[in-house]
Design goal:
The longest helix has 20 residues. The chain has one domain. It is an alpha+beta fold and 201 residues long. The radius of gyration is 23 Å and the shape is globular. It has 6 helices and 11 strands. A hairpin with a 3-residue loop joins strand 10 and strand 11. The strands form 4 sheets. Strands 2-1-3-4 form a 4-stranded antiparallel beta sheet. The protein has a 3-stranded antiparallel beta sheet with strand order 8-5-9, covered by helices on one side.
Length: 201
Amino acid sequence: MSMLPRRLPLLALLIPLLLFNGCDSSPPESEVAGPQVLTRANDCHLCGMVVFDQQGPKGQVRRIGNSNIAHFCSTSDLMAFLFQPENRATIRQAWVHNMHQADWRSPPNRSHAYIDAYTAWYVVDHNLLGAMGHTLAPFASEEQANTFIAQHGGHILRFEEITVDLIAEMASYAFPDFSVVRDFDPEVELGGRGERRDLER
């Protein structure tokens, strides 16, 4: 006697499962997870400012067990968050703007404008201001970073060379006198290491 008839009920049960699994083409979380398109609804996770309206490079973070993206108005704010001991073990992914050929005053808000924060090349001591004062300028390659340095000065750091002390120092010498924040002009640049240029009125 053929075994096929006996196997038909089992096949009838297995076929829907096989079809269900075969139709589920959703990639794993590691492939789906990525930076988001930035909108005016995104506030800075650290300072609360509307991220969309700020100049300079910005950041995003995805945390373990949390599907929501945390946005940051500057790379300095992002680093301050990443370096907090209570946050380090919760970070799944972090991204920063690639500022190569990007308009500093209004970096692109598309998701593919971001790169991995841990592998980026950063320029510090350049002559541009970010949302929170002097900030780290990120790039996808050393060549891109050196192109930026040729125009704006500074020197290169990798992620592992960035420290909490450096972030605090940048915040202090960008606006040593916080009264200047009232008169902040988005077109102002820093001359040299934290020396604010006098604007012609």
